[in-house]
Amino acid sequence: MRSTSLLLIVISLVACAPAKQTVDLVMHHGAVHTMNPAQPDAEALAVDAGRIVAIGTNDAIARAYVGKDTIDLQGQMVLPGFHDAHAHPAYDGVTLSQCNLVDLDSIDAIVAKVRACNDEQKDDGWLVGSGWNLALFPQANPSKALLDAVSTTRPILLAGADGHSSWANSKALDLAGVKRGTPNPEKGVIERDANGEPSGTLRETAQDLVRGVVPPVSADARREGLVKALQMANGFGITSIVEAAARPDLIEAYRSLEANGGLTARVVASIAISDPNDLAEANALIRPQDRATAARLRADSVKLFIDGVLEGETAALLQPYLDRPNWSGELKFKPAELNALVTELDRRGVQVHMHAIGDAAVREGLDAFAAARAANGPTDNRHHIAHLQLVDPADRPRFAELGVIANFQALWAFPDKYITDVNLAQVGQARVDQMYPIASLLHAGARIVGGSDWAISSMNPLLAIQTAITRSDPTGQIPGVLNAAERVSLAEMLAAYTINGAYLMHQEKDTGSLEVGKFADVIVLSRDLTKIPVEEIGAVAVTRTILEGATVYSK
Ligand SMILES: [Zn+2]
User: Fold this and answer.
1) pTM score, two decimals?
2) CA of 7 to the centre of ligand 1 (A)
3) Helix (H, G, I), strand (E, B) or coil at 520
4) Where are the domains of the chain?
5) What is the CA 453 to chain-centroid distance, rounded?
6) For 2-75, which CATH class?
7) Distance from the alpha carbon of residue 84 to the mean position of ligand 1, in angstroms
8) What's the pLDDT tens digit per position in 212-222?
9) How big is the CA angle at 100 (ends 102 and 109), to the nearest 5 degrees?
């Protein structure tokens, strides 16, 4: 009798304590910032089959779940994975295997690096690289003689940091047939020395003369470059990316990674169309049916370049450039042509992603979205305009009215040398004082997202977030503030890089916040961004990146 009642008590105790559920992963003891307003903070997560099945306190998760794997977060900050809404990983990934001259701060350092690259990559025919700082050379005009001292037998071609100038040695110029009598191509300049010989520097379209004889990037190299770029993205906590100008060879690289399970980020590819006549070709790549599927790679977006850049005076302005009173830049599409193209894409359920730098380009883009809405009524395509260096105040409310998302590259929003040494003379202080109006658009009701435009700028979202908050150089090297009135908060920028980016990519049901049912795209940071001086945000490290429950990066 005695033993029977003891047994009953044991049985009833077991019955009262619910059995713990075994899941793939439990993460606990974290400072979890969920980006879900209904439950902003948590300590622990349970993850199964790639999705979050529970989120709450350490006790609540421990009571109900046991993980096959457990990660002790040791009090570190946890966020949803970052969304980079404008980058070029498939296009620029190859540069990570080439001669990287970024951030070298003397001519000697650059030449020494080229020499080292030449020694390391003996088997390759061409020596190709990029990222040299134009400002180090007199008239931004380096001589081929410096490269001939490295090699006269191997062709060398090095792109400048801004992409608008390249530097070649004599062998490369010979192979391209660029010589004394070669005329400048349209919209390009072959720089010449005092004797009239090509000096080695090529501007704008003149770069194509040499690029045209460099062997094309192979499919293998393209794919390997993309793998490296995605590793870099994961290292910065990026789990979702908009590929900002996709072409057939780039899509092929993505598809081959997707097929072998190597695609370590969610990707929306914006298929580039430079001319309405390209639409037929682009249609082979555009897939509106990808919308709202959980596929890692989706191609339900198109990229249109509305204008160029201020530095080259190709950005389209409402008022002329100060140094050329009859020149306001150029729109790449006629308004009627753009309206028709955007209306058709919108009708077909394709998202339109625009490049617009100048205020005339932004206005033309908004006008096209207005034309599409007039023709099609409201749609859920979540069109967006990237860069937004100048936006006329009259156009600011139109983003919210038209549901157009503002896609900022906030790392550009400080008084760097492009702005102080080039743009200021081109457009004057009044327009400089309106550049990158992040707060103005936010307060006018626009949804804000963030993108890197890598390889133009660092892919690190924390550098861009710090810059958006301070409007000053995140490295502390350049003094000054660009438009303090356009500062935004940490919370606003975290939203831009998480839930708003997810919305832009039509995946907010799956990513962008840490909630039950969403993918476990989770990052861990070395310091809590909410508890440190804003000037230190850019130096915080991501210590772990988890995509769909699997660690894709750990420091
Ligand atoms: Zn871009």
Assistant:
1) 0.90
2) 70
3) coil
4) 2-75, 83-87+217-551, 92-211
5) 4
6) mainly beta
7) 11
8) 999 999 999 99
9) 65
